[in-house]
Specification:
Blueprint lengths: L10 E5 L4 H12 L3 E6 L2 H13 L4 E5 L5 H15 L4 E4 L15 H28 L3 E6 L12 H21 L4 E8 L5 H4 L10 H10 L9 H12 L10 E4 L7
Parallel strand pairs: 1-2, 1-4, 2-3, 4-5, 5-6, 6-7
Bound molecules: nicotinamide-adenine-dinucleotide (NAD).
Family: Belongs to the short-chain dehydrogenases/reductases (SDR) family.
Protein name: Oxidoreductase, short chain dehydrogenase/reductase family
GO molecular function, one term: oxidoreductase activity
Length: 260
């Protein structure tokens, strides 16, 4: 197998694995030899994903988890170590968006929810993942940030605040744990066609969803939105055992939007 894509014997943990990027990443890693602990707050959808993976002979354990709860983040790591003996990679991918909102209309509950899920989820995740990775002799962490973590995101200030924080803690962990042979990077997608964007309660669902999506697409150099597999390909590259010196990066996967 191409060493870039050979995950044989590796044990990985993915949050937000019941849908979108997380689900697709679980399939890709599983097909390339990884054993997986997958977590999500949506237990029904998670169970279905676990059944699909197990049906393809991928070693998998599924755990209902709410990443805003520290105990749940710990349980994910404990499960990997107990069931598979180690942890080699962790993907803190669970996240939530919100409806477009002007800065002067933001309420505290919305802001709290963004910070609790999108920021605490990543910090609590790494709090328990990093010691397990040290124990394994090193490994890789990928945090799912966003282009909203790199620049301004119109009418998405709470989400942008949270994703900027994700990049901040990614870089900090990279600096602090590099000497332990741990690489920590973030992937920063532009708008990509997952349920978060196009689902019935996705961020483009209010008003004319088709018009919103087409406006988002026309503003990009490639004149289209991202496809989930295009983000997952970069997550695989960031996790790859053959990618040994990339650390502390926040990688834009945006069809060229940041080149403007
Ligand atoms: N789709 C995009 O346009 C886009 C762009 C940039 C960044 N992202 C980020 O990508 C990540 C994955 O999003 P996606 O597009 O695959 O969306 P998605 O909605 O398809 O998947 C997100 C998953 O996270 C789970 N989740 C939500 N809150 C959780 C919690 N508290 N604990 C555990 N699981 C929880 C959901 O149940 C869902 O299965 C998110 O962090 C999101 O912010 C998405």
């Amino acid at each position: 197998m191409d060493p870039m894509l050979d995950f044989t014997g590796k044990v990985g943990l993915i949050t937000g694995a019941a849908s979108g990027f997380g689900k697709m990443l679980a399939e890709e890693l599983g097909h390339r030899g990884a054993s997986l602990v997958i977590g999500d707050i949506n237990e029904t959808a998670l169970r279905q994903v676990a059944e699909e993976l197990a049906g393809q002979d991928i070693p998998v354990r599924a755990l209902r988890c709410d990443v805003s709860r520290e105990a749940d983040c710990k349980a994910m790591v404990d499960t990997a170590v107990k069931e598979f003996g180690r942890l080699d990679m962790a993907v803190n991918n669970a996240g939530i968006a919100h409806d477009f909102v002007a800065m002067h209309d933001i309420d505290e509950a919305l802001l709290d929810r963004q910070i609790n899920v999108n920021v605490k989820g990543v910090i609590f995740g790494m709090k328990y993942q990093l010691p397990a990775l040290i124990e394994a002799g090193g490994g890789a962490v990928v945090n799912t940030a966003s282009m909203a973590g790199i620049g301004g995101a119109p009418k998405l200030a709470p989400y942008a605040a949270a994703k900027h924080a994700v990049i901040g803690v990614t870089r900090t962990a990279a600096v602090d744990y590099g000497r332990r042979n741990i690489r920590v990077n973030a992937v920063c997608p532009y708008y990509t066609l997952t349920p978060m964007l196009e689902g019935s309660d996705g961020i483009a669902s209010g008003g004319d969803a088709e018009k919103t999506l087409s406006m988002m697409a026309s503003g990009t150099p490639m004149k289209r939105l991202g496809r989930p597999e295009e983000i997952v390909a970069v997550m695989m590259m960031l996790l790859s055992p053959a990618n040994t010196y990339m650390n502390g990066q926040a990688l834009a996967v945006d069809g060229g939007v940041s080149a403007f």
